[in-house]
Amino acid sequence: MKDKKNINEEEPNFNENSKNEQLEAFRSSDNEDKPMTTNQGLKMSEDEFSLKAGERGPTIMDDFHFREKMTHFDNERIPERVVHARGFAAHGEFEVYESMKPYTKAKFLQDPNVKTPVFVRFSTVVGFRGSKDTARDVRGFATKFYTEEGNYDLVANNFPVFFMQDAIKFPDLVHAIKPEPDNEIPQATAAHDTFWDWVSQNQETAHMIMWLMSDRAIPRSFRMMEGFGVNTFRFVNEEGKAHFVKFHWKPVLGVHSLAWEEAEIVGGADPDFNRRDLWDNLNLGNNAEFELGVQIIEEKDEFKFDFDILDATKLWPEEDVPVRIIGKMTLNRNVDNFFAETEQVAFHPANIVPGIDFSNDPLLQGRLFSYLDTQILRFGSPNHHEVPINRPVCPFFNNQRDGFMRQTVNKGNVAHHRNALANSSPYTVSEEEGGFAHYQEKVDGHKIRARSDSFKDHFSQAKLFWNSMSAPEKQHIIDAFRFEVGKVKSKDVRQRIVDMFSNVDVDMTAAFAKTIGSTPPSSGGSNVKKHSPALSQANTTKSAMTRKVAIIVAEGYDGQKVEAMIDALSAAGAEPRIISDVLGPITGNNDSQVEAKHTFQTDASVAFDAVYVDGGQTADAWFDRGASKFMKQAFEHFKPIAASNEGLNWLKNLNLPDSLGVVEANNDTDFVQPFIDAIAAHRFWERKMV
């Protein structure tokens, strides 16, 4: 028998490469130049024809190769997630900026010199796996930290609040927002009767709906959206002192969105728009970076605010509880196999480490049960933690055995605790030795199905959100209500929504009520005057980094101007892309050459963030064959446009010159830098349409 000291000494040390090494051990070697074998290693001489009784005879039962190949194919899928079915993921690392020891004993938040491997899955919520990326929807932002103390899962969304306060309502929400059960229509949208009926009967969802109707619901990129832990957690330090905490992911590139019409076009032209953006940028070396921020409240201040800090339909305004930036996550590597990694990764909010604990947030309490239950059904086994992408980097020992998908081969005849046959191994360890111990919160109360009165204000923060929006953002919210509620067939439901949101803002509600056949409110509205600048995307970081810029040229283009533009865009971190009437090399007037990898038939302007048009000697011949529509569509989606040479004539033909965000190269003035500045601004919402 081994004593405790010897067992501990045999445990491998944690290091930043351990997860990559572990995954490498499970990867199959490259198939190139290898003989084909069965899964048992038997080399095969034929893989095109089944074994038959004669050339035109029936396939016979002893064709074991056909049976293995077909059986594996028939079982290659697992049930998709009920929500968050459509996702995309990447590998990376996290490093803390400074020790958080005063607040938490979590080791991965202590040493700035330690890089913790992470795996992040972004997702839409409502749509099936085959739906589009650009639907108006909440986005999942789930991060798995492979720490030396075990896996920690921060299962977040791109909104800081949720639809409900108590998890018991979650099945009703999903049943209501999913396609209606009689015809399974519509897909990946909330614009139908059952969802808005549920909203009208559950007014606690008002704040969340304001976020859902906003630009936040149609992110430009996974790399350009915030992530929020939503629920209230606890930090616990070595002395046992606790603080309430909320988690934030802040994208280094800022928070940016698609225009609504643009999102609809993109969803048809490229349903994989957001996942392709992440995949392509990581392959180009454009790492996706997010800073981790925390909001911390002392336990003595739990009841200090005009909202309940355990209410998941409420945020903690950053002006009242500042976000402290404590570290950065860098996503730097795409997955090698979508199914093995992205589809099989399993997240669970109860996967925590010492130093992080739960609050009594009733939504969180329900999540602690639901996630594990869901993953077991999806995998058909409690052993999904042994799948390589889910496997901790630290060793794990317990008396759990057997079950479908079991990979660990446990030796010995002992699988019970406590025991004398194996010296009580595996044994528990004290909190001082790293053992997890729940925070000792005193709880005293009657068993009751009820909710605290402090949860009853459903409209103040919805009005706070409205107050915080810029004028264009407010108009987009009104337009979203017009579309979403306008799709509802029931007049009664539409009117109930109008009546409900009149408690937020009368002018806002009257603006969409007029277009959906409902009676506008004449009074009501919240009297909240407060606003939070942090909630508006108008105040976000703005940069030209990684923006895709379409450069339209034809034979004989101005080589000097185009080369200068390409060099400047590349220096600013933007991604210039040549587009023309045909694919292939195009020669400029100075014998320079560029290659068009995009045409007006293969790519619409919605795939780009900005447009520069120089033209060329042959450009006018195909202006009406796609270029005019390309430019006009970019203009209508408020994007920056630059023009030189023939491009200037095209601006005049389309009545686009002298418009906000349109940069013209006149009299050889510098137009490159103003265009780059315009790209950084992202959109020109105040632009007047022609």
TrEMBL record:
Cofactor requirement: heme
Highest taxon of source: Bacteria
The entry's keywords: Heme, Hydrogen peroxide, Iron, Metal-binding, Oxidoreductase, Peroxidase
GO cellular component, one term: cytosol
Example of a GO MF term: metal ion binding
Keyword tRNA processing attached: no
Top-level EC class as recorded in UniProt: oxidoreductase
Protein name: Catalase
Residues the record marks as active site: H84, N157
Function summary: Decomposes hydrogen peroxide into water and oxygen; serves to protect cells from the toxic effects of hydrogen peroxide.
Annotated family: Belongs to the catalase family. HPII subfamily.
Span list, region Disordered: 1-46, 517-540
